[in-house]
Each structure stands twice: as C-alpha cells, then as structure tokens.
Design a protein that fits this description.
33% of the residues lie in helices and 16% in strands. The chain has 283 residues and is α/β, with parallel strands linked by helices. The chain has a 7-stranded mixed beta sheet with strand order 4-10-9-5-8-6-7, sandwiched between helices. A two-stranded antiparallel ribbon has the order 1-2. Strand 1 and strand 2 (10-11) form a beta hairpin. The chain starts with 5 loop residues before the first strand and ends in a 10-residue tail after the last strand.
C-alpha cells in the first residue's frame, strides 16, 4: 500500500497519527487544477450581465427554503451516518464573534461532494459561494444555486454583475466561502495550490479569512456498515482567523494572505511537508 503522495513538486509528509486515505483513486501529479469528473451539460445558460447572480425574487426565496428542507435535511444525515462528520475548533467562532460580525471569508480544501454542506453546518451560518459556472448547467445546478452558489463568469459584463453581487453581500455582512483549490478531488490529502480570488476579496472588503481543513479518519466500528472501507470519515477543523493588513499594497498583501492561509490549512490538516506550492504560476 502506498503511504506517500508524490507530485512534480515534492512528497507528502504527515504528522504522526494523521490518517492518509487509500481509496484507489488516481490524481494528476502535475496539474492541480485538472477536472477529475467530466461535467455533463444538461442545459444552456448565459452567464452574462443578464444572469441573476444575486436573486432577490420570491421564486428564489421559495426554492431556497425548499432546498434546505429537501436537500440539507437528508444530507445532514448522510454526512453523519456515511461520513461520520465531526467538527473541531468551533470555539473560534465565539472567540471572534465581534470580529466576524461584519462578515468573513472562509477558505477550505475541496475534497468531497458534500463538504460545502459540512462547512456550513460547522460554522452554523448561511454561506455564499463562488463556484465554477459549469456546475450550473448540470445535474447539481438546482441544489448549488439555491444552497448559495454563485457562478464565476468569464464574460466582462457578467464579471461586473458578479462583483456587484458580492459587494452587496459584503455590505449586508453575509458570510462568504471559497474553495480556493477551485476543483473537487475526492478524498485527496495534500493541499493543492490556491487561486487568488478569495484573498483579493478579503483585501477589498477588509474581511477576516477563516482557514478550514476538511480532513480524514479511518472508517471504524459502526461506520464500517454505512460505507466502503476505502472511503474515509470526515473531520472539519476550524483555525484562527487571518486579518488583512490594508497598509500593505494590494498585490503584495493578497500574496501574503494566500500563503498564510495555505500554511494554516496545511497545519490544520496535519501536513508537515506539502507536495504542492501555495500558488502555481500558470503563465
């Protein structure tokens, strides 16, 4: 059984006692932003300036309520029974209640289908999440949209409306969550490089960043009956917040925030040596 994970940048090393899943899945060693699941397009959507990035309609409010009733409730049980979800570090939320009162940007690794739901439960808060636009043309579109997902467009007019939506959410003191790795790699242990979007947003809004690690435990006891032995149990760990320094120029501080957050999540995940850099130069 392979006890390490290697990439073109290095080899994973974990703290003693930290669990490394052995799922039999294969992951790219040279492209951390590769999509491991081919998106199936079921409908055409124009992600331009006409798309309702922040929908305040009655229809949206009704479907949002239905989403939480029909999806969040049942999959709360799935997270408990199949993945044995546990939470660590929730005392951080009380400790920094005043600092978080105007909103936060939480950042976590992206490693299983229901991690967004688990993080929302860990924080006890409604989250608004920028997501790849391809998610909103496939089978999960309804769930993701009414859970709080907002597609990231590449159209100039769409980007303007997307930014306006998050400006409004920030002004309303909403909590924003970002999967800075961009894509979901199921039960992958190393922390992949981060995109800059979350940290640019944190600097722009002067919002605290809350690092979160979704990590794993071996399937034991009762949970051997609720899932395959190769699929790990889940622990969500919340870390100390990281605050932007607005006295530092934006570009420099965005890089600082990215590196600090990446390092903090590695620490939370029990990673001593991470085989990916904090940021990957894609030029």
């Amino acid at each position: 059984m392979e006890d390490t994970v290697k990439t073109v940048f290095g080899t994973l090393k974990l703290k003693e006692g930290e669990y490394l899943p052995h799922t039999g899945m294969e992951y790219p060693a040279d492209d951390p932003f590769a999509s491991l699941v081919k998106a199936v397009r079921l409908k055409e959507v124009n992600f331009d300036e006409t798309y309702p990035y922040l929908d305040r309609s009655l229809s949206f409010r009704i479907q949002n309520a239905l989403n939480y009733f029909l999806v969040f409730g049942p999959f709360y049980l799935i997270n408990r029974l199949v993945y044995g979800v546990r939470f660590e570090g929730r005392e951080i939320l009380k400790k920094y209640r005043k600092e978080f009162a105007n909103g936060i940007i939480s950042v976590a690794n992206h490693c299983y289908r229901w991690d967004g739901m688990a993080i929302a439960e860990a924080l006890g808060h409604r989250l608004w999440v920028p997501m790849l636009k391809t998610h909103f043309t496939g089978k999960d579109a309804w769930y993701l949209r009414y859970f709080g997902g907002i597609p990231v467009p590449d159209d100039f007019g769409g980007l303007r409306k997307f930014n306006e939506a998050f400006d409004t959410l920030n002004s309303e003191k909403k909590w924003i969550h970002v999967f800075a790795e961009s894509r979901n790699w199921h039960f992958y242990k190393p922390l992949r490089p981060f995109k800059k979007g979350a940290f640019t947003m944190a600097y722009r809004y002067n919002a605290p960043i809350l690092p979160i690690a979704v990590t794993y435990r071996e399937r034991t006891g009762f949970f051997k009956l609720t899932g395959k032995k190769e699929i790990p149990l889940i622990t969500v760990r919340i870390g100390e917040p990281i605050f932007p320094d607005k006295t530092i120029p934006r570009r420099e501080e965005v890089t600082n925030l990215l590196e600090k957050t990446h390092s903090a999540i590695c620490e939370l995940a029990g990673i001593v040596d991470n085989p990916w850099p904090a940021e990957l130069n894609e030029n």
